[in-house]
Amino acid sequence: MKKTHITFTLNGQPVEVLVEPRELLVHVLREQLGQTGSHIGCETSHCGACTVDLDGRSLKACTLLAVQADGSDLLTVEGLAPGGELHAVQEGFVQEHGLQCGYCTPGMLIRAYRLLQENPNPTEAEIREGMSGNLCRCTGYQNIIKAVQYAAKKLAEGEVEAA
Amino acid sequence: MAATADTLERENKLEGIGCKRKRKEDGRFIQGKGSYVDDVKLPGMLFADFVRSPHAHARIKSIRKERALALPGVHAVLTADDLKPLNLHWMPTLAGDTQAVLADEKVAFQMQEVAMVVADDRYIAADATELVEVEYEELPAIVDPHKAMDADAPVIREDIAGKAEAGQGKREHPNHIFSWEVGDKDGTDRAFEAAEVTVAQEMVNQRVHPCPLETCGCVASFDKARGELTVYITSQAPHVVRTVVSMLSGVPESKVRIISPDIGGGFGNKVGVYPGYVVAIVASIVLGRPVKWIEDRTENLSTTAFARDYHMVGELAADKDGRIKAMRVNVLADHGAFNAHAQPTKWPAGFFSVCTGSYDIPYAHARVNGVYTNKAPGGVAYRCSFRVTEAVYVIERMIDVLAQKLGMDPAEIRLRNFVKKEQFPYQSALDWEYDSGDYETALRKVMEAVDYPALRKEQAEKRSRGELMGIGLCTFTEIVGAGPSKACDILGVGMFDSAEIRVHPTGSVIARMGTITQGQGHQTTYAQIIASELGIPSEEIQIEEGDTSTAPYGLGTYGSRSTPVGGAATAVAARKIRDKARKIAAHLLEVSENDLDWEVDRFKVKGVPGQEKTMKEVAWAAYNNVPEGMEMGLEAVDYYDPPNFTYPFGAYLCVVDIDKHTGETKVRRFYALDDCGTRINPMIIEGQIHGGLNEAFAVAMGQQLVFDEAGNILGNTLMDYFLPTFVETPHWELDHTVTPSPHHPIGAKGVAESPHVGGIPCFSNAVNDAFAHLGVTHVDMPHSAYNVWKTVHRLGLDKPSAA
Description:
The complex is a heterodimer of chains A (about 160) and B (about 800). Chain A has about 160 residues and is α+β, with helices and mostly antiparallel strands. Chain A has 2 domains: about 5-75, Ubiquitin-like (UB roll) (Roll); about 90-160, [2Fe-2S]-binding domain (DNA polymerase, domain 1). Chain A is about 35% helix and about 15% strand. Chain A is built from 5 helices and 5 strands. Chain A starts with a strand and ends with a helix. The model of chain A has no long low-confidence stretch (mean pLDDT about 95). The mean pLDDT of chain B is about 95. Chain B is globular and about 85 Å long. Chain B has a 7-stranded mixed beta sheet with strand order 3-7-1-14-11-12-13, sandwiched between helices. By secondary structure, chain B is an alpha+beta fold. Chain B is built from 19 helices and 36 strands. In chain B, about 60% of the residues are buried. The interface between A and B is large, with 58 and 57 residues.
C-alpha cells in the first residue's frame, strides 16, 4: 500500500515517518518509533490504555489514524518527565499506590495530566467523571483518585511557590 | 528482648514485614518503560493472526489457502493438516482432555481457531485471514447445558464419542465429561428428612471472563543453529508452560526458555496453554523466524478462558431456630467444547466442596456434573481459588434464603451457625481442615462499624414508603494456597513453590521465585519477607521471577498461592541462610552458636554488650572466612510443599438503593473486613482488596458472556462486556482483623482473591434483600439496571400509582 509521509512533534522532538494511510497511530508509536508506553487494550476506544495527548486533548491512539497526527504536537507517557524529574501525576501514582499491573497506567497518567490542566482543583466526582474514559482492572480506582488529588495539590503548591 | 530506640530504628530501616513500603515495580511503569509481551520486538519477527470459525458447530468441508498465500508479505498459512505430521493438531488440556489446536475436520464453538496466517506485519496478516476460504456445513449447536445430555443431543466431541471416560471419570453420554460427588449422601438425606425447615433454590453463576487489560499473546523464537526455543508469553505459570511446550514440541526442557515479562493483569486468564501459543511456536520452528501472536479483545473474550457457568441447586436443612443441619448442592457445569478448565488434576470441580462456608454444618453432600456445549473451553478461576467463588456464592445466598424463610435477620442466622473460634483447626463435613478463624469477631466488628441496627431501621422506614433499599452481608471463608502435593498436582507436578536466595559478599541479595507477579507487587513484598528474616534492608534485595532459565521451578501465581506457598518458601529459604549465618557468626566471635541471640539484623553474644556481628559482616565472611569444613557462600533454595491450605476469611456489608423506575442500583456503602493472617504490606493489601472488590462488583452487577440459540457469542467487545469505570465504581471502606495461619512460616494466608469471592455474594445479597419483603427469594446475577428493572416491573413497583 502506498505510504504517506507525515511529520509531528513527539514529546518535544520533531519526527518524520512513512505510514500507510490505514495505519493506526498507536501502532506507529509502538512499532516504528519504539515508544511502547502507550498500550493496546481493546481497539475500540473503551479502555484508554492507549491515551495520548494530541494538541492539548486526550485522545485514544488505537482509533486514530497516524495520518491524523500529521503536523500535531503529541505527548505520550514517555514525555511526562523531560528533565528526568517525575511529573506530579507520576509521583502521585507511586505515593498513593495508584497502579498494580501497570498496563493502564500510561493512559491514566496522560489523562490525569490533561485533566489537571482542564480543572486544576477537581472534586472526587469531577475526577471520576474526568477519568472515566480510562479503565483499570486492578486498583478499583480509589487509589488513582487519591493519586490525582495528590498531584493536584502538588501542582498547586508549585504554582504558589512560583508566584 | 525489650525493643530499644536503637533496635526500632534498625527495624524500620529494613522495611520488612508490616511496612507500607512503596512499590519497587512502579518506577518503570510510570515512565512507560514496562516490558510487556507486545513490547517485545525481535529482528526478523513475523506476525500471526487466526482465521476463526463463524459457526458454533460445523463440519469443515474444505480450506483453500491459495489466495492468502499469494498476498505479498504472507509467509505461511497453517491448518490442522499441516500440524498433523508433527502430531500437534491436538494438545492435552490441564483437565485430562484434549483440545484441537487448529480445528480438525469440525469446529465446536464460534471463533474457534481454524487456520493461522503468518505475515510480515499485523496488517498483512489480518488481510490474509480474510483471503483464506473455508467451506462449512453447519450442525445444530448446543448452547443450553441442560440440553447437553438429551437423548437426541448432537454429539459435540466425535473424537471421543465412544470413550467411557475423558480424563476425569466415567461418562454417561457423549456430551458428558464427568460426575463428581463428595460428602455423606445418606447422612445428608436423613438430616433433610428429619429437618423442621428446608429450603431449595436454583441459581446460576453466569459465564464471565476475567478480561485483564492486556490480552494473551506470545513471541516465539526458535534458534535453529542452537536448537533453542525462547518464548515470551503472558503466563501466570511459566514453568508449567515450559514443561508442556517441551512435551508437545520434543525440544528438551533444558533448551526451552519461557519468559513471562511484565504481565498486564491475569485474574486466571493466563494460566492455560492456548492454541495461539502452540501454533506461534510451530510457525517459528518451521519458518526459523520469531513469530508474534497477540489476541485482540474480541478474541480474548470469545476464546481464552471463560469462568464460572455453574448452574446450581442449593438446599439447606435447619431447625426452627435457624441452626443448619445439612447442606446439599447439585451443579451442572458447562465446560464448553473442550474440558480445559485449570484446576489441580484430581479436582474436576476444584475446591467447590468448601461450599459449607464459615458455618458448622454437620452433614453435606455435593455433586457436580460437567458437560460439553458448543461454547469456548475454559472454566478458569477468575480471581479466586479453584471454583471457590461458586462455592461461596451458593452458601452465602442460601443462608439468606433460609433466613428469609424463617423470618430471621441475616446477621443473626450467621452468628448462630458460625464455626467458633475454639473449634479450629476445624474439620468440615466435606473434609477440609480449616486452619484458623474468628468469624464472629469479624462480623460483630463490621456490624458495629456501620451501625447495623440503624441501617435495618432505615430500611424498614423506606420499605414502608415503598422505597427499595437492600443490605447485603457476606461472611465468607476462602481456601487458597494450593497446595499440599499429596492433594494437588498439575500434569503430575506437585503444587509446591520455590525460592532461591543468594546473599552477595557485600550483603545485597538476589532472590528468584517460581511464582510470577501480574500486578500483585511481588518485587516489593517478597523482599520485605527476606528483610525481616535476614536483617538486610528491602532496598538491597532484588526479586526476579518469570524467566525459566534463571528462576527455580514453581507452579506459578493463581489461586492466591504466591504468599501462602511462594512466600513460605521465601521465609524458609531465608531461615536456612540465617542458620548458616549463625554458624559463621559464632565462628567469627569464637563462641558457641547457642551463645548467640538474633536481634533485627545481627547476632549478639548473650550478656556481652558490643560483641556482635551484623548480617552484612557475616555475608562478607561467608566468602573468605567460614568455619572449617563449611562450604563457602551464603545462599539457599527451598521447595515448599505446604502442609495444608490457608483459609482467609472476611465479613462484608453492602448497602444499595434501587431506583424502582429504572432498575438502577446505587451502591451507597461497601464495608469490607478481611482477615488474611499476617499482613506483609498493608498498602498493597488494601490495593488488592480495592481491585478484587471492583471485579466482584463487575461480576455481580453486569458481566456476562451471552450466546444466542445458534451459539453466536453476543457482546464480545468492551462496548458490551461490563468493565466498571470510575463513575459507577463504589467507594470502598476497608477494615481488618489478624488471625495468623498456624502452619505458615510467617502466618500469612493470601488476600487478593478474597474480595472477589466475598464481594460477589455480598452485592447479590444486597440486591436480593431489597426485594426480600416482597416475597422474592432469589434473582440471578448480573444485577444490571435492565435485569433489576425486570424484577421491579414484574412486581408492578414501577407503576406510577405504586407508592
